[in-house]
User: Fold this.
Amino acid sequence: MNRFKSHYKKNILLAYPVMLSQLGHVLVGITDSVMVGSLGVEPLAAAALANVIFHLLMTFGIGVSFAITPLVAAADGENNIEKSAEVLKHGTVINFLISLVLALLVFAGSKGLYLLSQPEEVLKLAIPYLGIITLSIIPLMLFQSARQFAEGLSQTRQAMYITIGSNVLNVLLNYILIFGKLGFPAMGLNGAGYATLISRVLMALAMWLYLFQSGRYKPYHAAMKYIRLNMLMINKMLRIGLPAGFQFFFEVGAFGFSSIMIGWLGARSLAAHQIALNMASVSYMMATGLAAAATIRVGNHYGRKDYPTLRTVAFSIFIMVMAFMSLFAIVFILGRNIFPALYISDPEVISIASSLLVIAAFFQLSDGIQVVGLGALRGLADVKIPTFFIFIAYWIIGLPIGYVLGFRLGLGVEGIWYGLLTGLSVSAVLLFARFQAITKKKIAGSNP
Assistant:
C-alpha cells in the first residue's frame, strides 16, 4: 500500500476537476428531471424516454472525443508540441462532423419512437423535447474537443469551472422557461430543452475562448497554423475514437434498452427508473473522473515506456475508485427513501425508485472498476477488445438475464436492474483481467 500513497494526491488533483465536469453533464439531466417532475408523471417519463435516446448518441460522441486525450498525453510525455497540436486540429474536425451525423440521425428517426410501444401521452411530450436537446450535441462536441486536449496536457480545472457555470445558468434558464418567469411563456418540458441548448452553446464558446486567450497554449496555436489535415491522422484517431464511442454506446445503450423494457410496465415504473438512474449516474460520472486520470497518467507513462510505474499508477486509481464507490453505495442505501421524494410526490413511484437504489448500491463497485479499467486501457490505446467485452457483458449476458427476471419470472423493474448488475460485474472482471495481461506482457517484453 505504501507504494501507492505517493500517487493518490496526483490522481485526485487530476480527477476531481474531471469529476465535477462530468457531473455537470449529468446534472443538466438531473436538474431537468427534478424541475420537470413537479409537472407530473407524464412529463418526467417523457424526459426519461427522450434522454435515453439523446444520452445514447451523446455518450457515443463523447467516447469518440476521448481519442484526443491519450494521444495528447503520450505526445506530452514525449514533449512533442507539434504532435499535440495535430491531434487537436484533427480531433476538432472529427468531433464536429460526428456531431452533425448524430443530430441528423435523431431528426430522421425520432418518429420511430412510436414503434417502441411506449405510452401515447409520454410520446407526445418526448418527441419535441428530444428535437430541442439534440441540437445541443453540436456545441457539446466542440466543447469536448477543447476539453479533452486540455486534459491530455493534465489541465483539468478550466473545464470544471466552465461546466459549473454552465449548470448554474441551466438551472436559472430552467426556472424561467419551464414555469414562465420574467415575461417568458411557460414552456414546460420544452423549456428545459431550450435551457440545455443555450447553456451548452455558451459552454463551448467559453472553453474555446479560454484555449485561445491563455498564454499557456500559445506554442500549440503556432504549431497548428502549419498543420494540414491528413487521412493518416484521421484514421489513427478514429481507430481509437470509434471503438471508445461504441464502448459507451453498448453500455449506455443497454441502460437505454432497459428503459424501453421498463416503459412496457407503465409510466410510473419508467419514472422511478429515471430517478434511480439519475442517482446512479452521479456516482458513475464522478468515477469517470478517476478513469480520466487513469487515461492521462497511464498515457504519460506509456509514452515514456515506464511500464512498472504505469501499473502502480493504475492500481492506485483502482483502489481509490473502490473506496469512492463504496461510499456512494452507503449513501444510496441510507437515502433510498429520501432522494426519490426530491423528484416527485407520487408514493408508488417513490416506492419503486427506493428499491432500485438498493440494487444500484450493490453495483457501485463493479461500475467503478469497469470504468477505470476502460480508462486505463484507453491510455494504452487498447480499445477494440474492451469494446467486445462490453458488448458481451451487457447485450449477451446482462439484458437477456434482465428480460427473463423481469418478465418471465415476474420480478418487473427490479428484475431488469438485476440484469444490469450482472452485466456490470462481468464487464468489471473482464476489463481488469485485460489490463493485467497487457501490462504484465509489456513489462516482460521490456526486460531482456
About this structure: Residues 377 and 435 are 6 Å apart (CA to CA). The two ends are 28 Å apart (CA to CA). Residues 2-446 form one domain.
